[in-house]
Specification:
Structural class: alpha+beta
Helix content: 40-55%
Strand order of the largest sheet: 1-2
Shape: elongated
Largest sheet: 2 strands, antiparallel
Distance between the termini: 27 Å
Length: 68
């Protein structure tokens, strides 16, 4: 998405909607996985996995679904 499209989308949201989306982002579960470092299995957080999970949440959200 280019800057003009981002600006158009942001301008279409109310202040309450923007703040609500920001809160969803802030409260998101951090995604990651365990990786072997040669001695032990350690948890590594992943910003890209976290963002992908958030994007999927918005992409797949269906207000009429009883599964969410």
């Amino acid at each position: 998405m280019d800057k003009a499209a981002q600006q158009k989308l942001m301008d279409s949201l109310t202040d309450e909607q923007r703040k609500g989306i920001a809160e969803i982002i802030r409260s998101a579960d951090i995604e990651g996985d365990y990786h072997w470092n040669g001695e032990d299995s350690v948890w590594e957080e992943s910003a890209s996995e976290t963002l992908q999970s958030l994007a999927s949440y918005f992409d797949n959200y269906d207000p009429s679904s009883a599964l969410d």
